[in-house]
Amino acid sequence: MMKKQYICKTCGTQYDEAESFPSECKICTDERQYVPDSGQEWTTMEQLVRSGYQNKIIEKEQNLYSIKTYPQVGIGQNAYLLITEKGNFLWDCITYIDDETQKMIQTFGGIDGIILSHPHYYSTIVEWAEAFNCPIYIHTLDRKWITRKSNRYIFWEGESLQLAPGVTVINLGGHFDGSSVLHWKKTNGDFVLLVGDTLFIVPDKGWLSFMYSHPNRIPLPAFAVERIKQILEDYEFTRIFGAFDNNILEQGKEAVMKSAERYIYHVNRTER
């Protein structure tokens, strides 16, 4: 039987080459994700390419582009392409990649590094890294969630890592131990925060929430949110871009601080 690199249909994560699909997806069987009632199902990149999927690249602001697959594959998150004077970086990753996607991104100068917020968006990171001949940055606390072997991983430790002037990845923990956000000081002096869903932007304008599991509605404890708040107090940022076209375009830091305080108040309540 021909070996294939199977992809979980539910979360979009790709596994090492094998003659048959895995017995389970370790991302989906974790309590932060789920296995659907229909059971674990699998596909391959070759099958996806034949099925007519398409990636759209949309400018969000100068030198920041979202990349998203239509129709939805896996969780359906955005990836973001940052264009900087010292290199281009892909924040988070999506499952689907084809020749057309590679050609479009090469017009921006390619990708010099892939940075992940947390394991739910590991998707097909090795495929992307091989396509653009670049490294993959993952916090060492989340290395156990990797599903494909590669020599392209760079495991970083501690609270922060500067990837280029003005581009810093910050470990906040919470959702996963290695959950991180990306702080970007643009050349015009603006500050942007890319958050995946480590901080989740909610429908109520200017507010966020903090969850251990989003689909299963498991909240974070107050001490974890307090830690997030304390770390981000040291950083300036105006705009926040999330994983699902959910953005805060002004007073971003104020939104995080007031949201953390509200959250901590409610989870600590013991009476009405």
Please explain how this structure is put together.
The chain is of the alpha+beta class and 272 residues long. It contains five helices and 19 strands. The chain has helices at 45-50, 99-106, 125-132, 222-232, 252-268; strands spanning 7-8, 42-43, 54-61, 64-70, 79-84, 87-91, 113-115, 136-139, 153-156, 160-164, 167-171, 180-185, 191-196, 200-201, 208-209, 211-213, 218-219, 239-242, 247-248. Helix 4 packs antiparallel against helix 5. The longest helix has 17 residues, at 252-268. It is globular, with a radius of gyration of 18 Å.
Could you tell me the strand content as a percent range? 25-35%
Helical residue percent band: 10-25%
CATH architecture group name: 4-Layer Sandwich
Low-confidence residue ranges: none
Biggest sheet architecture:
7 strands, mixed
Q: What is the assembly state of the chains in this entry? A: single chain
Reported by name, the CATH topology is Metallo-beta-lactamase, Chain A
Number of domains: 1
Mean pLDDT: 96
Radius of gyration: 18 Å
